[in-house]
Structures are given as structure tokens and as C-alpha cells.
Amino acid sequence: MTEKSRKSNVIFRPHFKTHQSLKVGQWFRDEGINKIAVSSFSMAQFFAGDGWNDIMVAFPFNPREIDVLNRLSDKINVSILLAGNETLPLLTRKLKNTVDFYVKIDVGSKRAGYQTDSVIQIEKLLDMADMNNNLNFRGFVAHAGHFYNLKSVSQIRKEYKKYVKNLQTLKNYFTRRYPDIIISWGDTPSCTVLDKFEDVDEIRPGNFVYYDFMQLKAGICKPGDIAITVAAPVVAKYADRHEIIIYCGAIHLSKDYVIVDKKPVWGMVLSYTKDGWQFPKKPAYVKRVYQEHGIISMEHNDFFSVNVGDLAAIIPVHSCLTVSNLKNNCHFI
Amino acid sequence: MTEKSRKSNVIFRPHFKTHQSLKVGQWFRDEGINKIAVSSFSMAQFFAGDGWNDIMVAFPFNPREIDVLNRLSDKINVSILLAGNETLPLLTRKLKNTVDFYVKIDVGSKRAGYQTDSVIQIEKLLDMADMNNNLNFRGFVAHAGHFYNLKSVSQIRKEYKKYVKNLQTLKNYFTRRYPDIIISWGDTPSCTVLDKFEDVDEIRPGNFVYYDFMQLKAGICKPGDIAITVAAPVVAKYADRHEIIIYCGAIHLSKDYVIVDKKPVWGMVLSYTKDGWQFPKKPAYVKRVYQEHGIISMEHNDFFSVNVGDLAAIIPVHSCLTVSNLKNNCHFI
Question: Per-residue pLDDT for A153 more than 90?
Fold first, then answer.
């Protein structure tokens, strides 16, 4: 991803919420990366404590966090996202340091942000922000969250072109007033399948650092690209129904699922060998999850090769959520 | 629940995984409760540190936790669950203290445990356990997890009678060999709707301490019984689609949902007033959740009464999962 961003001459600002790990962060630093994105002020504080000093909190600014923003911007360059103009009066009253901000644009996921054609509303926000010398407008941020649901790589390429064109129009319009603004683009699917990042200035993929079963299922990554499994202790097995009970449920994997053969699955099951984990010829899945229990259904032969006390390797459906859970409830091994 | 258990002359061993709070635990202690259930050894350690000394780890014993079991049973009375005989050789080799155990019985949820008619297999387990003087067989544990999906109170009563009768048969058979064994029964739905606990010796409900939207929706509790809301900061609102964005997503509420008007919802939205929270006349719901974002859809009038910076009160779908998430990611207020 670093190489690709250099070839395209875009800033690479990886999203660290997927891994939340100082060690993995260090690997990025070793690649020359010095700007990151996170999804909360607590994550920003965590990474600031390890020397990161250019951090975007990529979530609509929560006015209840003005104090932590002031404390953090004493020390490092924090940038925030504005997804509306409602927080500007408070920022104007209470902001103590200079802070960069980006305007959040909704590129089809219908989550947060302005539409690309909401020029008048965006202008109103910028007029209000310009009254505050501490607020520096840096550009537009987009995250195509709905790309996770697109069915093919060609569909992702097509949608990317469409939305980036709209962002370009917006940027061009505002460049007259703010010459240095950029377009920052997120999401792992498009950053993975595109070979070149035309017409954006920055990319912020996060999930690609581990990928997961959702990305595998959507054809975004290959099995060999996946860099995460959850080590799930096998606590019981039932031969009559060929089911294995693991100590690995919703509080570990999360309740995100994908559909396989018309049924929901909460993880893909591999086995650990002395050479690492191994994809079985016939895949097995976590077919039910409760708070702490997970239930794996297995073919006859595979079932008898698993013992109570073993660790099963589970590829989670959504690695970001699983890491967020595990960081609090478990040990990384 | 304490009163009801006393009237029925059953032991009340509340499940503490729902609240995971020393303070709420203290309220139980004030009621004279001295036995509890938890779902992990780390929770057992947490409550043992606060003086609880009769704790059931109500999850099939994970052989990888033999060391923590030995450490904890040095200090307090820990009881474990066996959902198969596979862990007995390890327990026999490594157990250092006397430990009570219960045999887990599957009463229809098809999760973990023996069937009530698996007498020969249970006998085999007990024969193996009897070879170890440190293992005391105390009885049978059942959790009717599938009662959460039953459609009516009368259905719950009927199913309860059926399964308890089977458990009684099992207990009677083994009482000849183990005169003091008990039947321990879990699940909030049946413990809530039954007025009297006939033919069981112990109850272990947990969720009833807060209840949640799932229990409300299933008719198990009334709005006034609910004792939990998540205080969700409003970070953006979009008048064109009448949607409100809250800083409250899957890492807070979890991804458990229930179906309302044929659509999934991840929480019920109330408002905070100076007198506490208030149920609106026309309910609003969290209709989408992402990792950190939640999206609320609101009627015209209610929409304009909510401001960015407000807190919305969200009744979670499944309070146990929400508390588990919040304990790690947020502050309790």
C-alpha cells in the first residue's frame, strides 16, 4: 500500500483503528509513514503517547470531547472532521489551539457528511469556520463504506470514478478560496483493487493491514493476504451433531456475519500446525455465536481431528470489530 | 427475584455477567445473596477480589485455564461446569484443591451439555470424576437459552415444565449415588414469568438486573422494568433524511438486533429529561450501526427537538453484550 501510494504520488495516512497496536504502528513508521487516522480521541491519545504527531480523528467531531481536543492539540497536530456546522459555535468559544479540519462528504454510504452538491451548506460552514483563526480548513474527507457491499471489483472501480469526479468538482470550486485543500479518500476495498489513485490526494485504508473473511468473501483479498486469526480454545465437542464448542463468541468475534450458502457465518475455521495456520480443503465455519460460546459445524473426518483443549484458528468476519473486542477481553498471541 | 426465590425455597445464585459491577454486586449482598455465577475466570477473579467466595464459572471448563482455577480455588469456593468428559484426565493430573463441579445439561438450546437421556455417558463422566478426590459432583446445570426466542409466556411455562421434568428424572436416578445433588436452572425469561420455581433447587438469572429491548419486545418485561440506557452523544443530524448520527455503534451496543416492523433495530431511543429518561409517545430506533456510528431515524417533530451535543438515551437490544462492550470502551455514568 505504501508503494502504491508513492507511485500515485498521494499521501498515505493509514487508519489505525483496525490494529490498535503500537507494534504494528511501528511497522508503518519503518516504511516512512508519519500521518495516521484513528476513530476516537482515546486512540489518538494512545498513539500520541508513542510519538505519533499527525493524527486525524476520523469521526464527526463530538462537542463533548472539546477538552480532550484542547489537551491533545497542545502537544501534537490533531485534525478533526466536521459533518455539519452545529459544532462551530462551541469550537469558536472553546478551542485553545490551532486545529486542522476536514469537511466530511457522504459518497453514497448515507452515514455522515455533506452531499457533494451541497455547495451552499458547505460554504456556510466555511464562512463560520473562517471567523475562527484557530480553525484551518484542509479539505474534504470521504469514506465509501458501502463499497464493502459491492459485488464486483469492476463495480468498485466504476463507483470510485463517479464519486471522485464529484469530489474533484467540489475541490475545484473551493480551491479558488483555499488553494491548498486536498481530497482524502478511505476504504480498503477501493484502495486494494485500484492500481493507481487518480484525482485524490490522500488515502486512508485501515482494514487491509489484516483483511478478514468479509473481504475474502467479497473477492477483495486472497486467503494468503489475511493476517489475523483468533485462537479459540475448544471446550467441548458433540459427535452426534458434529459440532465443536469454542470459547469464542460475540464478545470476541463480534456479531458481524456474512452469508455463505444462504446461511449466516461468524467466522472461518482453520487449524494451527507447526508451520502456522492452514486453510482446510473443505472449509468449516462458526455457525452460531452467543456471548462467550461459538459453535463450529464440521465434516466427519475433520471433526475427529479436533480435541478439547486444542486451539482453533478463526478468521473473523470483520477484523476491526474483533480487534476492538479482543484488545479488551483477551491476550494477543 | 430474591423474594420469589425465598418463597420457592430455592437458592438464588444471580449471574453477574450482565452487570459486571462491584456496586450492583453489593446491592445483591445487601439482600443476603452470597453465591454468584459468572462466565469467565477473569470475572471470577474480579468478584473474588471484592469478597465473593462462592462463585460458579458457568461456562464449560476450558482446560487451558487450569492454572487460574488452581490459584482461585486456593482462596475461594469456585465451581466449574463439565460439558463432556474430555477434560477429566487433565483435571485429575493438575487439580490442586477441592473443586465442586456441575454437569451441564442441554435443555433444548443445542449449545453445550449432555442430553437429559444421556445417562450412560453421564455415568461414565462421574465414574472418571470419582477417581479424583478433589472433584465434588454437586448436580446438574441447565440454561434454556432458546427461551429468548419463544413467542409467548405460556410457551415458556410449558417448555419449562417439560425440561424440568426430564431434569428431575435425571436427578432422581443419580440421587441414589449422590444424595445431595441439585438442579440449577438459568435464564431470565423463565425466572421472570414463573411465579414459583417448582422442582429446581437453584436459579441463576442474570439479565433481569437490567433487562433490555429484546426482553421488552418478547413481552418478558415492561418498560418500567428496564434499568439501563446508553448515553449516546449526538454528533450530526440531517434534516433531508430525518436521521441523527450518534457516537454509539457496534463497539458500544454490539451488533445484536431485534426485528421491529419487519426491519432490524439495534436499540430503542429515549430522551433524557431532568427527571431521568423518558419513553416517547412514538418510539424511535437505532436503524443502522457501524463500528462507532449509530443512525437514528426520527419523526419530524422529535427530529427538531434533538441537537448536536445532546445525549440520546439508547435502550440496548442485549444488555449483557452492551455492558461487556461499555465496560471496556466507555465510562458508566
Answer: no
Query: For B265, which DSSP code?
Result: E
CA atoms within 13 A on the CB side of A252: 25
A1-11: buried (b, 16+ CB within 10 Å) or exposed (e) per residue? Answer: beebbeebebe
Identify the CA nearest to A10 among candidates A223, A201, A292.
A201
* Chain B from 22 to 81: CB within 8 A of any A CB: 39-40, 59-64
DSSP states of A208-240? GGT--HHHHHTTSS-GGG----EEEEEEEEETT
Q: Hey, of A146, A207, A247, A322, which one would you mutate to test binding to chain B, going by the most B CBs within 10 A of its CB?
A: A247
Q: What is the CATH number of domain B2-208?
A: 3.20.20.10
A275 DSSP 8-state letter = T
B1 close to A (CB below 8 A): no
Number of helices and strands in chain A (H, E) = 12, 17
pLDDT at B198: 85
**For B223-329, which CATH class?**
mainly beta
Percent of chain B with pLDDT over 70: 98
Closest approach of B7 to chain A, Cα-based (Å): 31
Closest to B122 (Cα-Cα) out of B165, B162, B159, B170: B170
Q: How confident is the model at residue A152 (pLDDT cuts 50, 70, 90)?
A: confident
A308 touches chain B (CB under 8 A): yes
Interface with B, mutate which of A256, A289, A292 (most B CBs under 10 A): A292
Q: Can you say how many angstroms the Cα of residue B264 is from the centroid of all Cα atoms in its chain?
A: 22
Task: Say what the pLDDT of residue B331 is.
Answer: 54
pLDDT > 90: percent of chain B: 80
- Reported as a single tens digit per residue, the pLDDT across A173-221 is 999 999 999 999 999 999 999 989 989 999 999 999 999 999 999 899 9
Q: What is the CATH number of domain A2-209?
A: 3.20.20.10
Write out residues 161-200 of A within 8 Å (CB-CB) of B: none
pLDDT at A279 over 80: yes
Confidence class for position B319, pLDDT limits 50, 70, 90: very high
pLDDT at residue A333, rounded to an integer: 45
Contact B86 A241 (CB under 8 A): no
The 10s digit of each residue's pLDDT in B286-298 is: 999 999 999 999 8
**3-class secondary structure, B100:** strand
Residue-level length of chain A:
333
Q: Taking CB atoms and an 8 Å cutoff, what residues of chain B touch A247?
A: 59-60, 62
Inter-chain contact A86–B309, Cβ cutoff 8 Å? yes
> Could you tell me the residue ranges of all domains in chain A?
2-209, 223-329
Of the partner residues A84, A245, A328, the one whose CB lies closest to the CB of residue B236: A84
- Cα A32 to chain centroid distance, Å, stands at 20
| Chain A residues within 8 A of B88 when measuring between CB atoms | none
- Taking an 8 Å cut-off on Cβ atoms, the answer to whether B235 and A83 are in contact is yes
pLDDT tens digits for A225-264?
Answer: 999 999 999 999 999 899 999 999 999 999 999 999 999 9
- Counting one residue from A and one from B, how many pairs have CB atoms under 8 Å apart? 134
Q: For residue B168, count other CB atoms closer than 10 A to its CB.
A: 16
| From A145, A291, A325, residue closest to B39, measured CB to CB | A291
Name every residue whose Cβ is closer than 8 Å to that of residue B243 and which is 6 or more positions away in sequence.
A110, B237, B295, B296, B297, B298
Distance from C-alpha of B229 to C-alpha of B225, rounded to nearest angstrom: 12
